Amino acid sequence: MSTRYDTIGRTYTATRRADPRVEAQIRDALGDVRRVVNIGGGTGSYETAGPVIAAVDPSPVMLTQRPAGSAPAARAVAEHLPFPDRSFDAALAIFTIHHWSDWRAGIAEVQRVAGRIVILTWDPAIQDHFWLTREYLPEALTDEQFVDVTFPELDAALGGIRVEPVPVPADCQDGFFAAYWARPEAYLDPTVRAGISCCSLLDQDLVEARIAKLADDLTSGAWDERHPGLRDEASLDVGYRLVVSA
Ligand SMILES: C[S@@+](CC[C@H](N)C(=O)[O-])C[C@H]1O[C@@H](n2cnc3c(N)ncnc32)[C@H](O)[C@@H]1O
Asked: Is 97 close to ligand 1, i.e. is its CB under 6 Å away?
């Protein structure tokens, strides 16, 4: 059972919580359902997007950070779900599928236990345009610790999908990788980086060297010269996508 989040998830809730605008989009995608399971549910973010009655996650460190009163959570992986067939009307898989060791087996299991599936993931082709990836940390998206899952592959595995862009608000409350696109100073904070697996799973000497370059560019004004007006945008498409099964 993967427990990488037992190491990198210790301070997760310091910076990671549901953003209300992203959550509203997830709620719309779930639609009118009664029983929802949260796969890779971790600390419970986004479970108020719908009637979540159960969650699974392999990491005890993540599970122990779930707030009191949240849905009962089992220690399990997507690839082996401890539920009978058709236990749920829908399943959530938020920022998790790229961590699954066998995503096809996970999707097959989720299809066995649930009806509609709502996945929040990213499009690497678009996230490649994000300034942090392009100018400072290209390794963040090519890291071999992440599983590549393409939309055509998801389409085939799920028998049809709808893909929606998830615009990221400038003041996004959930500190995922590109959440701070308009607040570059945030990436200088080690606690912010600890909540972002594409930073925390990389070699930390490399990350610190690249972040030192960012710090220099912020001090000299070079970052603002390269990104005129970016701090004033309200939201940005940084490649996040909601994938909803047909
Ligand atoms: C970035 S966190 C996302 C947690 C939560 N969904 C959220 O939005 O905050 C990724 C989660 O996926 C979990 N995970 C890793 N491998 C998994 C697997 N094979 N099946 C289910 N969850 C897994 C991790 O333990 C971690 O809690």
From this structure: no
Which tops the pLDDT comparison, 12 or 124? Answer: 12
pLDDT at 36: 98
pTM for this model (two decimals): 0.96
Q: How many domains, in total, are found in the chain?
A: 1
DSSP string across 103-170 = HHHHHHHHHHHEEEEEEEEE-HHHHTTSHIIIII-THHHH-TTSPP--HHHHHHHHTSEEEEE-PEET
Domain hosting 142: range is: 4-245
The residue to mutate among 57, 59, 242, having the most atoms of ligand 1 within 8 angstroms of its beta carbon, is 57
Q: Is the CB of 111 under 6 A from ligand 1?
A: no
> Model confidence at 143, in pLDDT bands (50, 70, 90)?
low
Cα 151 from Cα 70, distance rounded (Å): 31
- The answer to whether residues 135 and 224 touch, using CB atoms and an 8 Å cutoff, is no
> Which atom of ligand 1 lies closest to the CA of 40?
22
> What CATH number is given to the structural domain containing 69?
3.40.50.150
Nearest protein CA to atom 4 of ligand 1, as residue:
42
2 CB less than 6 Å from ligand 1? yes
